[in-house]
Amino acid sequence: MKREILFRGKRVDTGEWVYGLLIESKNGECHILVKNYNPIKKQGSGHWYIDAPCFQVHPDTVCQFTGLLDKNGNKIFEGDKLRLENLWSNTEWETFVRFDNGTMVVDIEECDYNMTSIGFIDEETEIEITGNIHDK
Questions:
Q1: Measured between alpha carbons, how far is 71 from 105 in angstroms, rounded to an integer?
Q2: Which of 30, 32, 39, 132 has the smallest number of Cβ neighbours within 10 A?
Q3: Residue pLDDT, tens place only, 83-125
Q4: Residues of the chain with CATH 2.30.30.290
């Protein structure tokens, strides 16, 4: 199965979210290259280039896609606020997605463990995005 690599970040100029590939410069600036683009062959040069919008984003808003979707089909990113509802036990939690020790994790307070990989949430638990740490 192919894993989609995708980032999002808030544009410096408008504050809007943009989605695509992350480009980090040596001076610390971050840019998102919008992912829906077509490579174009430059006339007469024999070289290909990417004709796609690229936007500078606030580095502290850059979040990576977890590879998972919520119950509504929305992509879950690092920094998203989630409502988890276990349909079997009728238990509900609110938590945030974060990156820790090489994996995307969530903290479920009533459980015996501190963090669990978001990929280990069982099939009996519905996940819904209710916000994120960057939007108030």
A1: 18
A2: 39
A3: 988 777 778 888 889 887 777 777 766 555 556 677 667 677 8
A4: 67-132
